[in-house]
Amino acid sequence: MTPVLPSAALASAARVVRRVLAQPAAAVSVAFLLAITVLAFTAGLLGLDPLEQDMLAMLEGPSAAYPFGTDELGRDILARVIFGARTSLTTAAGAVLLAAAIGVPMGLVAGFFGGWRDVALMRVVDLMLALPGIMLALALIAVLGRSQSAALVAVGLTGVPTFARVARAQVLSLRKRDFVTAVEAFGATSSYSMFRTILPNSWSPILTQMVVLSSVAILLEAALAFLGVGIPPPTPSWGEMLRTGKEYLYDAPTYAVLPGVALTLTILSFDTIGRALSSVLEGRDTAVPQPRAERA
User: Residue 70 forms beta bridges with which residues?
Assistant: First the structure.
């Protein structure tokens, strides 16, 4: 394996994207996520207001004014589902980035130095894994309180062990490779070897985990809201809509069905893309080989 050059890495990434989009299910999933993301972050330009109440149209069925009906306070269900997508996507993105920012350096240090650092950091990871993700998130919410930032931190910390283990495994597989040894022979520091030599050659499993954990983060955020400890009202949340909508399932079926469908499709889309990305990268060298020198 040879180190990844910036231009070669970009070309390799482009090839991976093309191969992922060549799979029909992955292409549909990408299109769905792009559509829901654009819709969620431009909903304000469409005149949709998830907090506007119409007391004369409470629990109303689908109509021209409200295509998917209204909730118990007369709020537009479609608008709340669209803005709920913004809540779920931003929380999931922040949680995954937080998990990677903490877990990847932990794994790099544990795998690179070994010894007591490896033992100490991996025991912390084992301790976090001893608790189910939902239990750890509930404990953190109890300490931090109910808010979107608290939900982001709680969901993000549950993903730290996964990134730490993946990064550590990559370091152990690359630590004694020739290109790492050569860099160290030229006087590179430990930080340079970890973050400038090993980490760029470990991007593929980390990227796959980021995509897969996005679906887990969205599900966990919705689960916290469904249990009544997630993002507090009136902020639109798919989990909160499911929790409240189940009380009016017969009076207003779209109240719970629409956010449930949106949640399911979003999770399936992330999972499908993650599986496609994993299948593309499986059995494939993550580094880009250097061109061979021409013979004289």
Answer: 76
